[in-house]
Design the sequence.
């Protein structure tokens, strides 16, 4: 990636440049476009030469500009309708505020625009003689808003002849002086090739009926000079295609429209690597960065505009793949109207493009696609959209929308035949971008990682200066406080203590370590039935010797976090950050082991043996073995300029915020340190206390070879094998992630290869299966008893494969047989007698269908007490594991 802004090495234009122009979501044909991948202009040719070559190539291919004139009239009318709308009442309370804003903006730009014959610029804050590329984008953007104000009925500038004359004169002036048909790109290519011409095309379309043929020719030749053809990849290819289609419609140039439409083809398929949408819903831009929330949204938001313009003509294009993108790439990431920050790259450092901004743009795009969706797609898309819109109780997703978008949304919301779906409950691994989302009804958990495939953070254009740890196993908790990350979080949070991370506490320079690729490949997750997920990350941290292996096991009511192999030798402390939560009021109670802690701002304490911690309004944190916990409640003040120095978003306004931080200190130069804790989102203090006494999960293993956790009541076992090995009933011959659920009549298995290197993976699950009910492609059953399979994961790209089978479930007699099989060296006579009596009681309760959880807990406590005192450690582990397997089948 090259950061230099010159014609041979263009650099991205920040996304909110478009919003500095006040285009916003009204630009239905461009959406959130404004991010760009480095794609240098072709060496050795001028834009004009490239344009001529492109036209020649299109002509040679037999594509003649022969579309009927009424096709172009239709396309212009459809384009215009996407911005201006029709058949609405300007006094409608839902529409009037937006019209008033447009009128005010039109007057603002009109009244401040230079109109003199000797002008050197159109606006003094966008001097074309000082910062030309930036000013190109600004100037055309404002002209497009003025043109929209002239074209939109219901406001006082509608049809104003003086406004029309000033807009046309300004466009003439731009083409004559700066955006010339024989001009060269100076500075940032994005503004010349995408943002500027998109706005120019829009303005020209809105006043098209008042333009002479000569003017239209001059305008479109200028655009063709800078954007002769679609270029680049993913989002930027769609944006340049949009420019080419637009100028073709204006010029009546069928070859250009066809060139632009056909330029979409490389994007309208799934990427196997690199930029674009992947089958698991990941979206990558700049080769290494997750960008569903910015580049991806700009792509998604631009396509409906193109589809709408060319509909019903020989150039008509549509593709059902876009609906798959909405479902797979956006539905898991949108929480109450906001799009999770871990998929928005450097945009988290922009004050006016936080998570709800991106989420609302996704709503706009999906609305535009819903209008034309086939019935089978509309059946799920409509309810999903209703949920997205109505669940956002913080920011109205429809505020500031265009008239057409408002009318579309009103139609959807008023349609009683379209139900509101309700909260999405799922567990989703975005394997291609090292992100995981685990969602329940009233909370969601995000995990952000990096690997040899995905870099840690992007920081260019003086943006995202402190993104150091945002993909080092960073975790994000979403709950009822839906503005948590949307209200000054990133400039005020302690950037050295990002939740979920295990870190070397050294100071870092702005942008330090950007683009770092973790050399370890074991990064990913395994999902069973889109409900339970085992996530793992082997991290060699940037800029130091710290290594760690960490896992997150995501179940129904909790997330269990394990860390092991934490080792460093740099002479510095290493910490694991359990939580760093922005407080809504600053006074939320913190309770540790039943006692209030850090009651006031500025207080910090260390609790030597913390078993559980509760933060009011957020949830609980349980430490199964007790830990030395560090807690702090602090008042912090930050500024957006702390994390971005880009002039479009640099803001020095102080932002006071309050935080609660909870962390573990592994000391200086730890050697094979470890940790375990359980996060209980939304749990109250009493629920947290009870969980600490009788946890719903059990850590099966936490070593440098394997980490494993069982969810007792669900009968789910999650296993991350860093190397070949075994844990409980699971064994493998290669590194793998495995999730198993033992039900009353069925066993389900999911397997993945986060390393992408194993090819075929052999897995044995120590249960007696009877019949396979369903199996994914590439999975071969070797034996049923015990259930043993070979899974071909060579082309899975880190995603999961699995099966379901009937089986004979684990029972108390099975555990009795295990005890009977232990020799005298493993269990003493007294221990055998005590355990036999306990198992007889369990067997009797199970036979009568009576509740047995209390007896199971008593049995586990007895096994623990006998460990090393009549029961060998190995025997104790086997018996405890067998006891854990009974929880899901014996009634509580």
Sequence:
């Amino acid at each position: 990636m090259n950061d230099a802004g010159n014609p041979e090495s263009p650099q991205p234009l920040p996304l909110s440049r478009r919003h500095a122009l006040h285009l916003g979501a009204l630009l239905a044909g461009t959406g959130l476009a404004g991010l760009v991948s480095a794609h240098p202009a072709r060496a050795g040719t001028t834009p004009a030469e490239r344009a001529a070559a492109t036209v020649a190539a299109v002509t040679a291919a037999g594509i003649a500009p022969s579309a009927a004139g009424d096709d172009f009239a239709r396309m212009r009318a459809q384009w215009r309708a996407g911005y201006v709308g029709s058949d609405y009442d300007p006094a409608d309370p839902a529409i009037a505020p937006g019209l008033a804003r447009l009128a005010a903006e039109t007057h603002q730009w009109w009244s401040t625009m230079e109109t003199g014959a000797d002008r050197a610029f159109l606006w003094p804050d966008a001097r074309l003689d000082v910062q030309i590329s930036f000013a190109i984008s600004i100037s055309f953007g404002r002209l497009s808003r003025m043109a929209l104000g002239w074209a939109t009925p219901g406001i006082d500038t509608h049809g104003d002849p003086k406004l029309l004359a000033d807009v046309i004169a300004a466009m003439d002036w731009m083409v004559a002086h700066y955006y010339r048909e024989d001009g060269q790109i100076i500075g940032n290519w994005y503004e010349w090739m995408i943002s500027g011409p998109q706005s120019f095309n829009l303005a020209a379309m809105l006043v098209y009926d008042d333009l002479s043929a000569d003017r239209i020719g001059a305008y479109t030749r200028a655009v063709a000079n800078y954007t002769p053809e679609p270029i680049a990849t993913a989002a930027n290819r769609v944006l340049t295609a949009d420019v080419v289609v637009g100028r073709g419609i204006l010029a009546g140039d069928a070859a250009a429209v066809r060139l632009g439409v056909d330029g979409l083809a490389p994007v309208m398929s799934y990427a196997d690597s690199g930029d674009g949408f992947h089958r698991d819903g990941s979206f990558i831009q700049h080769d290494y960065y997750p960008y569903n929330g910015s580049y991806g949204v700009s792509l998604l938001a631009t396509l409906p505009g193109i589809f709408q313009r060319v509909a019903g003509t020989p150039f008509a294009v549509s593709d059902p793949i876009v609906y798959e993108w909405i479902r797979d790439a956006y539905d898991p990431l949108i929480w109450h109207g906001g799009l999770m920050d871990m998929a928005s790259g450097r945009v988290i450092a922009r004050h006016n493009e936080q998570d709800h901004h991106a989420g609302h743009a996704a709503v706009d795009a999906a609305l535009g696609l819903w209008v034309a969706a086939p019935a089978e797609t509309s059946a799920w898309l409509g309810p999903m959209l209703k949920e997205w819109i109505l669940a956002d109780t913080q920011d109205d997703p429809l505020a500031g929308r265009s008239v057409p978008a408002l009318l579309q949304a009103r139609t959807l919301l008023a349609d009683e035949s379209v139900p509101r779906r309700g909260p999405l409950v799922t567990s989703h691994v975005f394997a291609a971008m090292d992100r995981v989302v685990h969602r329940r009804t009233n909370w969601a958990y995000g995990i952000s990682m990096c690997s040899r495939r995905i870099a840690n953070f992007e920081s260019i254009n003086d943006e995202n200066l402190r993104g150091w740890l945002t993909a080092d196993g960073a975790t994000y908790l979403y709950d009822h406080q839906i503005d948590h990350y949307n209200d000054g979080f990133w400039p005020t949070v302690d950037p050295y203590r990002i939740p979920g991370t295990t870190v070397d506490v050294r100071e870092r320079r702005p942008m330090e370590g950007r683009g770092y690729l973790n050399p370890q490949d074991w990064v990913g997750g395994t999902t069973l039935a889109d409900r339970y997920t085992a996530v793992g990350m082997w991290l060699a941290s940037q800029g130091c010797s710290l290594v760690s292996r960490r896992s997150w096991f995501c179940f129904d009511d909790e997330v269990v976090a394990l860390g092991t192999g934490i080792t460093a030798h740099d002479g510095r402390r290493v910490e694991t950050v359990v939580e760093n939560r922005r407080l809504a009021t600053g006074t939320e109670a913190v309770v540790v082991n039943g006692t209030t802690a850090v009651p006031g701002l500025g207080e910090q304490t260390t609790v030597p043996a913390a078993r559980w911690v509760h933060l009011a309004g957020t949830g609980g944190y349980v430490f199964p073995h007790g830990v030395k916990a560090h807690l702090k409640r602090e008042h912090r003040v930050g500024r957006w300029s702390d994390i971005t120095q880009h002039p479009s978003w640099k803001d020095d306004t102080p932002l006071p915020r309050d935080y609660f931080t909870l962390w573990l200190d592994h000391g200086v130069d730890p050697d094979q340190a470890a940790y375990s804790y359980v996060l209980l989102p939304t749990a109250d203090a009493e629920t947290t206390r009870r969980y600490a006494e009788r946890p719903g999960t059990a850590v099966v293993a936490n070593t440098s070879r394997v980490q494993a956790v069982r969810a007792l009541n669900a009968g789910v076992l999650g296993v991350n094998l860093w190397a070949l090995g075994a844990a409980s009933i699971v064994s493998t011959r290669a590194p793998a992630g495995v999730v198993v659920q033992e039900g009353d009549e069925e066993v389900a298995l999911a397997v993945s290869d986060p390393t992408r290197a194993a090819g075929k993976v052999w897995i044995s699950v120590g249960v007696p299966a009877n019949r396979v009910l369903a199996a994914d492609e590439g999975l071969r059953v070797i034996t049923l008893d015990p259930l043993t399979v070979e899974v071909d994961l060579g082309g899975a790209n880190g995603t999961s494969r699995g099966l379901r089978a009937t089986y004979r479930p684990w029972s108390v007699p099975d555990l009795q047989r295990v005890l009977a099989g232990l020799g005298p060296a493993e269990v003493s006579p007294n221990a055998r007698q005590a355990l036999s009596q306990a198992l007889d009681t369990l067997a009797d309760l199970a036979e009568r269908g009576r509740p047995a959880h209390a007896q199971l807990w008593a049995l586990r406590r007895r096994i623990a007490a006998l460990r090393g005192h009549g029961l060998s450690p190995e025997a104790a582990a086997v018996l405890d594991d067998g006891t854990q397997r009974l929880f899901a089948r014996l009634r509580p």
